[in-house]
C-alpha cells in the first residue's frame, strides 16, 4: 500500500539533497549531476543502511519515485534531441567522424573483452551476448549534455577545439544509442511477442523522419500566428513526445529513444523562438524537479557496502578500460588527422566525460536485467570518476590562458582579420649598429606568414633643460637620425618578406617603460639584447617566446654560413625550434648536442631532409640554448619558451619551412 505522507516526505528529502549536493558539486567546479548522484548514493543503503534506508526508501516507495524519475528522463531526452545541433558535423566531418570512431571503437572492443572475462560472474545463458555488447556501449559513451556544459562554462564552445569536441560527441552519441538499441532489442526479445516488435524500429524511424517531421513543421506558422506558445501547441508537442516514447517502449527499444528521436525531428528552420519557449517551459520542470529525481533514484540503487576485494579488482579493470580506451582511442584518432598534440589530449579528456549519458545507459541495463546490482554500482562509480576528472584534467591540459588566446583568434577570424605573426625586437642605442639583431628577428619572423617585425626603441629625454635655439635643433637632429637608422633597419626586415614598422619615442626612464612597451605590443616572439636595461623585467613581463641575444651572432669566415649548434636538454624544444629555423632559412648545418635526446632529434630531423647531426659544438658555431638556470656558457641565443607551450611537431615544422627556402 502506498503511503502518501511517506512519498511526499521522500520527495522533500530527495529534492533538498539534490539541490544541496548539486550546489556543492558546482562550487567544487564539477557538474551538478555528480552531486545529485552522490546524494542518491548517500540516501541509499550505502550510508543509511537497511534500517533507515528501507524505512524512507523501501521497496514500496521505489516504484512511484522511479515513475517520476522516468517522466523526467523522457522530458530530458526530448530536450537533448531538440538541442542537438545538427550543423556541428558540417565542415568538420572528416576529423569529427574519425575522432568519434576512435573514441568509440577502442573502448567498445576493450569493454567487450572485459565483459567476456567477467560474464561468468554476473550473467549467464542467453544474457551473455546482450551483456557483452552492453558493456562495450557503456564504455564508449560520452555525455554530450555534460560536455556541452563544461565547454560553455569555460567559453570553449567558441573555439575550434570546442566545436570539434561537440561534433565528435554528437557522432559518438548516435553510435552509442544505436548499439544500445540493439542491446535492448536482444535483451527484450526473449518473449515471443518481442521478437517481431523489435523489427518495427526501422519503419518507426522512417515514419518519424519522413511523416512526423513535416507535420511538426506546421507548428511554426501556427506559433507565429498566435504570437506565443499556447497551451494547445504545447499539448500537441507533449502528446507527440509521450506517444513516441510509448511506441519505442512497446517495441522493446526503450522509451528514451522515442523521446530523443521526437526531439530530433522537431522543426529547426525558422523555429528558433518556438523551440526556445518550449525549452523554457520544460527545462524548469525537468531540470529542477524530475531529472534530479532520476539521478537520486539511480544513486539509491547503488550499494557500496556489498562490494568486497574482488569487486575492487573489477572496478580497477573497469576504470582502466574506460579511461585508457577512451583517452588513447580519441588521442590516436585526433593525431591521425594532424591535430596538435595538446589539442588532441584535451579533446581526449573531454570525450572521456560520461556523467549523465552513462547513468541513463546503466539504468537501462539494470531495468532490462543486463546488469546486476554489483556491476551497476561499479559502473556508476566509473561514471562519477570519469566525469569528475574531466574538469581538473582539462585545466591542466588546456589552461585558461590558452582558451583566452584561442577565443581572441576566433573573434579576429569572425571579423575577417588575419593576425600576423608579430616579432618585437627591442633596439638599443645606437640603432645603426643593430643590423645583426634586426636581421635575426626578421629571419625568425619569416618562418610564419603573414609576419610583422616591430622595432621598439625608447630614447631617454635629454639631460638638462631644452632651450629654443641650437640645443633644441641638436636634439631634433639626433632624433631624426635615430628614426632614419630605425627605418633603414625596418627596410632590411621588409627585404626578407616581413612587414615592418617602427615604434620609437622619448622616455623618462627606459628601464621602467620597456616592460610596458613589450607587453603592450602583444608579440608572438620577443627578441632583445642581454645588456638591455631591466632585461629580466622585460623578459618576465610577456607570455610569448623570448630570444635573448647574449653575444655577437657569428656569420662564418669567408661568407660561409657558420653552423648552428643547439643544446637540446630538458625543456629545450623551443631552443631547438629556433635553431632549426635559422639553419633551414639561412642554409646552415645544424648540430644538436645534449646526449641521447639530442641524438634522437638529430636523426629525426635528418630523416626529414635537414642537414642535422649530433655531436660537439663546432668552432665558430652559432650556439642556441634554452634560457634556464643551467644554460651553457658561451651561448649566443638563449630561448625561453612561451607559457603553456606545445611540444614541437618536427615534421610539421620542417614542412612549413621548406617553401620559404625557395622563395625569392
TrEMBL record:
One of the Pfam families matching this protein, by short name: Na_H_Exchanger
Transmembrane portions of the chain: 65-84, 96-119, 131-151, 163-186, 198-217, 229-247, 253-270, 282-300, 312-333, 376-394
Membrane protein topology class: Multi-pass membrane protein
Species whose genome carries this gene: Streptosporangium fragile
Subcellular location(s) of the protein: Membrane
Domain of life: Bacteria
Residues of the Cation/H+ exchanger transmembrane domain: 18-395
Keywords: Ion transport, Membrane, Transmembrane, Transmembrane helix, Transport
Protein name per the record: Cation/H+ exchanger transmembrane domain-containing protein
Family matches, as Gene3D superfamilies: 1.20.1530.20
Main subcellular location: membrane
